């Protein structure tokens, strides 16, 4: 299972179009933009909503099944199974217009599954979902990959990607910039300057301790007087020095968050 950064010229729609025009890719030799024999193998969950608000979620998924060529009875059964696969429950019977953003996302994922495709293209599938739904969806995506489907997910949040897969590809203008296991991508982040946000009860005392560290490139105060943003040249050394300092002195460090720990930051670094 592979995960793509969303920072592409035209997102997954470009990938889908190119897949349909490339010859001999294992799904036959489709004509340009008209390739039912290839489309039968592809399920697509777009980032923007393209739904019929007057239908229920179940009705919409069933309709997409019919449009994909399934007989009526099979489309109905597959629609229910697909809604169950994304944990819609009784919400599947509600009109789409009354659904939350997260539930509408599940409708789009269910319709991508209804014809049992071999390839799933999911563009920012977790948008708008609450934490329980995000956890359920991440687990479902992992399960689909383990079942043998090729699942391509567009996401720029590293912690979400790491929960779905072990391998990442970064593309820019059709060129592969980087690929590898998630730890390798994290190492790419660790080897470049990183911004770190801190909130501390004794922010000025903390700043005075850190100001001479070789691993610290810059330091700025927030408007509240309790927050700091540090640009760190060596994250490993910074974490070690900060841990040692906190063990020696209780300066009331409340929050320590890396601001660049995501695929967007890696992408920006690679194309700079």
Q: Helices and strands in order, then pairings?
A:
Elements: E1 2-4, H1 11-21, H2 36-39, E2 42-45, H3 57-67, H4 72-85, H5 101-113, E3 119-123, H6 131-146, E4 150-154, H7 158-164, E5 167-172, E6 175-181, H8 182-190, E7 194-200, H9 203-210, E8 216-221, E9 227-232, H10 235-248, E10 253-258, H11 263-271
Parallel strand pairs: 1-4, 1-5, 2-3, 3-4
Antiparallel strand pairs: 5-6, 7-9, 7-10, 8-9
As for the number of domains, it is 2
Strand pairing plus helix content: what structural class?
Answer: alpha/beta
Lateral strand order in the biggest sheet:
2-3-4-1-5-6
Number of helices: 11
CATH architecture of the largest domain: 3-Layer(aba) Sandwich
CATH fold description of the largest domain = Rossmann fold
Shape summary = elongated
- Give the CA-CA distance, first to last residue: 28 Å
Q: Averaging pLDDT over every residue, what do you get?
A: 82
Contiguous low-pLDDT stretches (5 residues minimum) are: 4-11, 14-25
Strand content: 15-25%
Reading the helices and strands in chain order gives EHHEHHHEHEHEEHEHEEHEH
């Amino acid at each position: 299972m592979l995960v793509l950064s969303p920072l592409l010229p035209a997102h997954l729609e470009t990938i889908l179009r190119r897949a349909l025009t490339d010859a001999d890719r294992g799904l036959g030799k489709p004509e340009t933009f008209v390739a039912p024999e290839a489309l039968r193998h592809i399920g697509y969950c777009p980032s923007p909503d393209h739904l019929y608000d007057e239908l229920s979620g179940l009705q919409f998924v069933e309709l997409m099944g019919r449009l994909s060529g399934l007989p009526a009875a099979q489309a109905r059964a597959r629609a229910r199974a697909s809604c169950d696969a994304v944990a819609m429950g009784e919400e599947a019977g509600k009109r789409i217009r009354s659904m939350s953003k997260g539930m509408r996302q599940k409708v789009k994922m269910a319709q991508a599954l209804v014809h049992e495709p071999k390839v799933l293209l999911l563009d920012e599938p977790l948008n708008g979902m609450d934490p329980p739904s995000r956890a359920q969806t991440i687990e479902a995506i992992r399960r689909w990959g383990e079942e043998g489907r090729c699942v391509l997910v567009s996401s720029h949040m590293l912690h979400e990607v790491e929960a779905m897969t072990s391998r990442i590809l970064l593309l820019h203008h059709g060129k592969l910039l980087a690929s590898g296991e998630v730890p390798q991508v994290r190492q790419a982040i660790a080897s470049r300057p990183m911004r770190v946000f801190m909130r501390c009860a004794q922010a000025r005392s903390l700043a005075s301790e850190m100001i001479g560290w070789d691993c610290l490139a810059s330091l700025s105060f927030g408007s509240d007087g309790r927050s700091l943003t540090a640009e760190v040249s060596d994250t490993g050394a910074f974490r070690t020095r900060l841990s040692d300092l906190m063990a020696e002195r209780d300066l009331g460090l409340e929050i320590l968050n890396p601001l660049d720990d995501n695929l967007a930051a890696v992408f920006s670094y690679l194309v700079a």
